[in-house]
Amino acid sequence: MNRRAFFKLSWGTVGVGALVTALGVSFAAILRFLKPNVFYEPPQAFKIGTPGDFPYGAPMFLVEEKIFIFRDREKGFSAASAVCTHLGCTVAHFQSDNKFHCPCHGSIFAADGSVQHGPAPRALEWFEVTLARDGQLRVDKDKTVPPTYRLMV
Amino acid sequence: MNLFREIWQSIVRRDPLSTDKGKSELVFLNVWLHIHPAKVKKENMKFRHSFYLGFITFFLFLILVTTGIVLMVYYRPYPSAAYQDMKDLEFVVFMGPFLRGMHRWAAHGMVVCVFLHMCRVFYTGSYKKPRQFNWVVGVFLFLLTLGLSFTGYLLPWDQLAYWAITVGSNIGSYAPLVGGQLREWLLGGHSVGEAALIRFYVLHVAVLPAAMILFTIVHFWRVRKDGGLSRPIWKLQDPKPAQLVTIGAPAAAAAPLQTVPASSTKTYGLMEVVTGKPIFETVTPEEEEDTVFSYPYAFVREAVALMITVTGIMMMSLFFHAPLEELANPAKTPNPAKAPWYFLGLQELVSHSAMLGGVVAPALMVLALLAIPYIDRNPSRRPNDRKWAIWLFTFFVVVNLVLIVVGTFFRGPGWALVPPWVHVTAGAE
Amino acid sequence: MERRLQQLFFGLSILALVLIVAAAYQANTPTWKNYQRNFHQLEAQGEPNEVTKAAVLATPPEIHQVMLTGLQRVDRCTTCHLGVEDPTMKNAPEPFRFHAGLGSHVPSKFGCTICHGGQGLATDKDGAHGKVDFWPNPLLSKDYVRASCGRCHKEGEVPGVPELTEGRHLFETQGCRGCHKLNGVGGSIGPDLTAEGANHRAPEWLERHFLAPNVISAGSAMPNFHFTKEQARELTYYMLSLTSEDMGTYYSSVRSIPGPAFGRQLFIEKNCITCHNVGGVGLKSGPDLQGVTKKHSTEWLDEQLVNPELVYPGSSMPEYDLEPNARKALVAYLEVATPEDVQLILSNKTRALTPQDVAIEAGKQNFSRFGCVGCHGTELQGGVANPNAQGGEVPSLLHLSDDYTKDEVLAVIRNGRVPPLDNPNGPPPPLYMPSWKHVLSDEDINRIGDYLWSKQQVKKDSW
Questions:
Q1: What is the pTM of this model?
Q2: Is A150 a domain residue?
Q3: What is the torsional sign of CA A138, A141, A143, A145?
Q4: Which chains contact A through at least 3 pairs of Cβ atoms less than 8 Å apart?
Q5: Does the domain formed by B35-234+293-415 have CATH 1.10.10.10?
Q6: Which residues of chain B are within 8 Å of residue A33 when distances are taken between CB atoms?
């Protein structure tokens, strides 16, 4: 094509391209705008106290955070979710059989969280436990770990 | 490939745009575009006739609706939450300040443009027969614009918002008989508080926009049915009756009209066969020559006006931060407490006389505006023929502007007259 | 023309693209992200483990927020101040430095602005430090930040902040209540100070005001009390702490309620012994308090302390302006109070108290508590300027007995008195004697009378 036609083509193409891109970027920007940057909820990662606050043997149940804190004499700390994977009820831990029992539909989870009985589809989640720099234990519910994870203190 | 073509043609059923038929069908077969006529007169579309103010006002409204809906996601209309949400928009939300800024500047822009549009329509005499009723609809659109701006003003719940609405609603309460009741109905209480905020919010996001859309529909429809955009003033001349062209049947058999043979390149529409007087259009030959298809002539101009409006508002938002003052404090009146700028003229009048400024002046102004097309018995639109009307209108516009300027820049603490170049300290704080 | 218009349209499209990209870029590069990046680099420096180091450096930027529903605030300071709870950041440069000495007042539980002021909602430096227009609560400087302790710790000694206790004491003894209301008790000549701390006045202004009220606040009727710089600062601390936020329920737990020791301190401070006795030790105008916690519930006792007349109509026990925790502490003390302990308290007084002494002492307490001191002086000397009143100043009370009977004086206290004008055409004097019959019981007024009469100076040539 001749030079005039080339410029005509590119003006139009660039123009339409710019318009379409501008619309696309605007749409993407609106979507990003709608994604929340802060949550008005209790934080997903939080400190639970110093190691000395937690006993060996029977797990400590933290009501609001809905987690069990286990402290093993040999291996250390672990944190299990107390939310049943079936429909979200809070499970209870029985020392007698060292299992988690859900009162709603009878699901039973073994000591490592795996499903032994009942309608629950998945094992209970275990969360990362770390030691923060001020000496407190920190649980992060956004980070799931395998059931064998322990924090040795 | 045939499938794609088939799918495309099931959606887009017009002839190609290279054909005249296609250009017409683009307009009258398309739901979004068919408010336009298939053809427009070039001279009527000139910038220096309308300045595209009507279009710009409408585009600003579109910007306000889209940014407004998006902002609603992060705003809660309760005194305990509103200010915090404004701060969240400023600090925590992605592009929060940008979108809020666009909304605020488009709002101010819309008030200015709707006013300028009204002035333009007056100065070009475009409210005269057959467009009188559309002027009335326009006045209501103007009042709705002020209402939307006023209700929106309260929502940030800062000192500026709280006291501007307190002053504004107090000005309204001076209306005789209904004033007190009106104020209570508007505020949902005796003073601006939680009830006022939720009422203003409902008005601002639902009731007034719905009314605005309804009136806009009527306004655009009337533009079409009244014959489209008016002819510019420089094209106004008394056409000799012999020069007029009739398309369709002549009005009176006695009138010696010249008939022009129907063009073989044009298609004329037969709408329907009914009994009654025939409908016909009378135009000058040059108007007939002046006619072009809306696509692309009108659309490219509208598109440019849209882009100027959008990019203009974006730049305003990027360069001028929308203000947010301290949290609303009913116990602490700023000194002076001022109504929003478009009501400052009224506040200035009210400071001299409550009855005059709060009741008489605004009522007279609105009534006068509504009555203009019916009081004005002069059929001519040419400026030379209507000097009185133009001077009178200009006088009132200037008085209003002066009052607003005085109220904005020349009134300091205690509503004392202080020139803006003198710095006044308001007290121990 | 049409070509030009098309080009204009497309040119504007490009402009629109540029603008939206600019807006998105601006939104995506707030300054806090830089601070977070720098902090992670600092953290990574000390990290020997390569895997952890990489993880730290790759931490996605996010806004950190402490939500304090009880305090109705949200603090985002930790978005930049990332090392406040990390002891290894002791020597880090600001804003990453560790905040030593917090004890239990960690940011994750208390936020930051409750002590430091500033704008917790902001995420840029100037905005967060409150050094912007329209945020009336900027960061408190080092000189005044400890005053914030008084916002929660409203009673007793506040560890590390003796200025608060001193300031409180000055307020009660210098007669501020004569003109200013605090928590509903006091005069109406000056503004109500119950929430003075929430008025966001600059601490420096408050301090200057205490040193020279008339200079700082033109036309003020507040006399110059000739405070020292130290006293002005102490009073400023007290004022700053008066934010009238209801924090007691949010933060109180069994551990932080002051116990019987504090209750004992209050027992002495409020002079309960001038009316009450424990097992017979003390005075007998009020009931014996021994074993009272066994006879009545804690709620009943609490109510008694709040409003004695509600429980015993006609009671002459004054209303004490005590915080809920202070009342709990007093009741806790009463549970363990013994006659021996009270004997110890009494023996610290310089002489045994006769009923007359009690009345005069009570009267003196009232005179101070209800602010009479503010106008009439701690030594009853008067002298505070009162323009256009006859005599031009508040009169001394040392020679009342020359001109009035005791009953006449008691009537003035009960009914109040507007001073006669010096110039009848001039403005009314700013200060006047208020009527106290709705605030003070007759008993209290009588005691003030007793106190005044005990202080009368007899004229040299009278006989």
A1: 0.80
A2: no
A3: positive
A4: B, C
A5: no
A6: 70, 73, 93-96, 99
